[in-house]
């Protein structure tokens, strides 16, 4: 039983005992053996505390979380005043619709001074134990060691919950300072084996975050000191009153199962419930997510989503795959976990990685915005609004508070992509000219790219070694070794050891390889891109100058797998569509709490389309139901079906737009 449950049970027992007269306290405390007045009193206490216990033991993230995140509008430079202004509007305008988390995104500890940026070094505020604390100039209430306590108190007084963004492991700045590590059980520096342990003992320099290499690195969780550092971090966040933590550079291409696992254990033992979110989602597959979904409450499944149509369209395939794998609403950390399609970049925004706040409006058309919020809702993604709430317009507000979408997002079930649709496209509309027919997508160009997957994936065992001469070997993707296509090969070289520190690493990484793009060039394959990528981007293999970094270290196994020392994931060549999701008709289906059917049509085509499905096909996606006819309404146009239909549902959908039906079917 977890700490907070143990405490509630203990308090319950104390109250029950206190309500029983001393002379009546027997080994058996059955109410039937007590005087009537005592029994009634005890039953009252019992009812009250069972109620408290049921509330406190409620599953975490029982529905997809909702809230506001500062990143899309303020990047990393948000101030305390700006944050609280947005939180106040969140409380006043959106809390009633379930938006309850106000989240400070990354680098709240970085000083806003010349030279500071998203991957700068030496500008962070850390305490004596090497832990990040808010920049007091941007967050003045944090002075005198208060951290986010005052901000949390104000957010809680608004009826909201506070969230913060944190990075993997430990900061490079703390390692360079060789800060001591706090042992929270003693309140002193951590000691083991007769010595005091410090940041340089636990920081894994070769496992620096691939896209923030100057900022953070993994810690060695095999060491008691490494665990003590992580424990001191998350206990401090809890002491501040934090309710939600977004842990970045630990998932996707940057997977760090060891840290996720230990942090999850720490969160289970805290005295306050904290939702645990993982990021980023580059290259994530259902198999990869299954290793951590039970350790978290939400996890990103794409790269960063920004306000481009390509980013929106890139979510359709991955959302389909996670729904088919039954990952939506699966078991999570002390509750439920949700695949996360990323924030909603709507309203008034900034630019990715910018050193400035909100200064422009969303670049998506209203049709594209409708498609985004419809997909996010029916795929049951967490809904984290990213625009500056101080400048939210009526149209944006109406989209993110649409009652049908929010009902679907929270309470629908059986959510899957619905493949039984057809679409006819005509640039002149549905009543003029010749139409062209599509199934669920247009023809798309396929390209092969290097990606990562769980090593449990059978397809990962696809590599072999080819000897060119006595001193030169290649590692090649064997599926391309036959036929006329040129195989994808990399040159194999043992990783070089150049310093005493690297000799120490060398014992840990003995037998590890560098994989070179060519025989003579000192350019090595990276496991994770060295910059943050968006949802619509895919990497064909990222190469950079060879270094002694785990992001460029690989281990070839005799079973044909090629394992990254950075993430523990396996390399794989996979075919992707160069314009994946960029065209065609798509559809999703779900069922409601009272038996209604939700049916969404999406036009990903550059032309307007007529999209249709047969009523008889609806049952194919809803096992156990037999459907003969339906009535209902299309939400975005606010139009009723003309009459009960038993044949076809047809909708004219503009380019990049959607239609959403609520159906009552027999």
TrEMBL record:
<comment type="similarity">
    <text>Belongs to the glycosyl hydrolase 27 family.</text>
</comment>
<dbReference type="InterPro" id="IPR017853">
    <property type="entry name" value="GH"/>
</dbReference>
<keyword id="KW-0326">Glycosidase</keyword>
<keyword id="KW-0378">Hydrolase</keyword>
<keyword id="KW-0812">Transmembrane</keyword>
<protein>
    <recommendedName>
        <fullName>Alpha-galactosidase</fullName>
        <ecNumber>3.2.1.22</ecNumber>
    </recommendedName>
</protein>
<dbReference type="InterPro" id="IPR002241">
    <property type="entry name" value="Glyco_hydro_27"/>
</dbReference>
<feature type="domain" description="Alpha galactosidase C-terminal">
    <location>
        <begin position="586"/>
        <end position="663"/>
    </location>
</feature>
<feature type="signal peptide">
    <location>
        <begin position="1"/>
        <end position="22"/>
    </location>
</feature>
<keyword id="KW-1133">Transmembrane helix</keyword>
<keyword id="KW-0472">Membrane</keyword>
<dbReference type="InterPro" id="IPR035992">
    <property type="entry name" value="Ricin_B-like_lectins"/>
</dbReference>
<keyword id="KW-1015">Disulfide bond</keyword>
<dbReference type="InterPro" id="IPR013785">
    <property type="entry name" value="Aldolase_TIM"/>
</dbReference>
<feature type="transmembrane region" description="Helical">
    <location>
        <begin position="34"/>
        <end position="56"/>
    </location>
</feature>
<dbReference type="InterPro" id="IPR013780">
    <property type="entry name" value="Glyco_hydro_b"/>
</dbReference>
<dbReference type="Pfam" id="PF16499">
    <property type="entry name" value="Melibiase_2"/>
</dbReference>
<keyword id="KW-0732">Signal</keyword>
<dbReference type="InterPro" id="IPR041233">
    <property type="entry name" value="Melibiase_C"/>
</dbReference>
<dbReference type="Pfam" id="PF17801">
    <property type="entry name" value="Melibiase_C"/>
</dbReference>
